[in-house]
Amino acid sequence: MIEMIKVSRTYVPDITALSDISFAVDTGELFFLIGRSGAGKTTLLKLICNMDTPSKGLIEVAGHNINNLKGNKLAHLRQKIGVAYQDFKLLSDRTVAENIAIAMEVSYKKASAIRLRVRDLLDQLQLADKHDTLTGDLSRGEQQRVALARSVANSPRLILVDEPTGNLDATTTERVMELLNRSNKAGATIVIATHDASIYKDGNHRVMELRNGKIHSLSRNSR
Amino acid sequence: MNFWFAVFRQAGRNLRQTWTSQLMTFLTVSLSVLIFAFFYLIYTNMIGASDRLSDDLRLIVYLEDDPGPEMQEQLRRKINNFDKTEAILFISKAEAYERFAKQLGKDSDILTDMPKDFLPASIEVVPLKSLRGYNQIKLFSEYLATLPGSEKVQYGQEWVERFYYVTRLVTIVVLLSGTLLILTATFMVAYTIRLTIMGRHEELELLKLVGATNNYIRTPFLLEGTIQGFMGSIIGLCALYILFQWISRHFAGPGLLNIFNFSFFPPMVIVCIIFGSIGLCTIGSFTSIQKFLKI
To answer: Is A49 within 8 Å of chain B by CB?
Structure first.
């Protein structure tokens, strides 16, 4: 699903965010990206979803060189990628339901299907009572869950999640991970950037650790 | 949900979110259309009046004496040498006397003591319809004045001259107000769309990230311009029609309006004004999108 070959990203004047990153994520895999703050996790996710462009190297997503895609082709690929951003990117003057619905509206899903899907996701994330609340009035933990709900709403083939549990308690973290696991079992490839060891320590996943913009380790979790 | 439903809903959101600036733009477009259409209406009516007046246009060449048949033929040839005419009519002194007596009707007895040849003989020249421009008529009259035996040429010079200058003035006003319409409508719509784009910057950014196509993002803004142009022209034309009705009612009767046969635009012109306004506002919207909406 994702292939990165010798990808580097430097910012002016000469800040190296990523250097010579090469790895691949298989279709349907649940992949963890770990490392301290500033290690380059968010930059890597931004490159995968074409929010940023690499200074060097090749990135392929679903067989497409994502940096060569433009216009409608890029838009259609992005419809198949759900992203939960670290800064949430919620529209504070819109309700929770409207924020989640946006991802499905751009794919011209039926209004009734959108309503059902929104209700279902809010139930799963214990936000049913916030359906008509403006996202600007939510706590950070609630906003984080709304952002996550939006990323999985359109049933994308690839889900990129940046620090999904940063503002959540243990029980909510468990619910969030349940939702992501369900999407994964339904066939979605998931890449989670985190430094919360509790969410990747169990299970048979691959975990890649970044340090100072370089791959420090890439191993399969044995437990 | 289909594309057009999404586009209309998004345009509706835009209009709601920036309704104050939208209202200002809408009023500006309406006013521009009203100003332009008002002068254009006067212009078209003046052109209509000018056509009607030119149908009755005759150049009268007063002669020193009654021309004989040979002289008449010569004069006819000379007149036609300048340009072909609709008709050339020779009026002898006696015919002129009879005409005048007929015009006087029951007061014709005042002519009893007058000699039957006291009125001059004349030639009535009806120029071709293609020769009805003010300058052409003036040239033609100057030529007729050089005919042998010609004393004076008359065609209501003063009236025609004044009418011609007023028509020219109105033409200039129509052109100026048309330019004003183009500039104000285009600028105001472009400015409002720019405000909307800036106000919805975050949302547009997010739409791109979740995979909205260029058309999905851009079309609502174009539609906004189209709606502004359509509504603005409809309101502007309605206001003009109310003004037209008021003028017709208050200035009806034997006056200037009767000479002009004051009438409103035909449906085709109304459609053209509406489409012109829509086109301009859409162009305004399009330029803002090109400049400020980088996708």
So the answer is: yes
Question: Which of A78, A79, A91 lies at the smallest CB-CB distance from B202?
Answer: A91
Give pLDDT, residue B272.
Answer: 93
φ and ψ of B66, to 5 deg: -65, 125
Q: What is the pLDDT of residue A151?
A: 92
CB-CB contact of A59 with A7 (8 Å): yes
- Burial B59-88, CB ≥16 within 10 A → b, else e: bbbbbeebbeeeeeeebbeebeebeebeee
Number of H helices, E strands in chain A: 6, 10
Interface test with A, best of B210, B213, B218, B294 (most A CBs within 10 A): B210
Domain shared by B46 and B182, yes or no: yes
pLDDT band at A223 (very low <50, low <70, confident <90, very high): low
By C-alpha distance, the chain A residue nearest B17 is A93
Q: Quick one: B138 and B223 in the same domain?
A: no
Task: Give residue B110's domain range.
Answer: 58-154
CATH number of residue B125's parent domain: 3.30.70.3040
- Whether chain B has a CB inside 8 Å of the CB on A84: the answer is no
CB-CB under 8 Å, A109 with B2: no
Please name the member of A83, A110, A154 whose beta carbon is closest to the beta carbon of B209. Answer: A83
Distance CA A199, CA A174 (A): 8
Q: Which of A51, A91, A105 sits opposite B209 (nearest CB)?
A: A51
Number of domains observed in the structure of chain B: 2
Model ipTM value: 0.84
Please give the Cα distance from A126 to A142 (Å, whole number).
9
Mode of pairing for the β-strands spanning A189-194 and A158-162: parallel
**Averaged pLDDT, B210-233:** 88
- Per residue in B70-120, pLDDT (tens digit) is 888 888 888 888 878 888 899 988 888 888 888 888 887 787 778 878 888
Asked whether residue B162 is domain-assigned, the answer is no
pLDDT for the residue B130: 66
Taking contacts as CB-CB distances below 8 angstroms, the residues of chain A near B211 are 75-81, 103, 106-107
Alpha helices in chain B (DSSP H): 3-17, 19-55, 69-82, 93-104, 134-145, 157-199, 201-209, 214-250, 256-260, 267-292
Q: Which helix (H) or strand (E) holds A83?
A: strand A81-84
The domains found in chain A, sorted by start residue, are 2-89+155-220 (3.40.50.300)
* pLDDT at B268 (0 to 100): 93
pLDDT tens for B234-292 read 999 999 999 999 888 877 665 555 666 778 899 999 999 999 989 988 988 888 888 87
Query: pTM for the complete prediction?
Result: 0.70
Q: Are residues B148 and B88 in the same domain?
A: yes
Report yes or no: B209 at the A interface, CB cutoff 8 Å.
yes
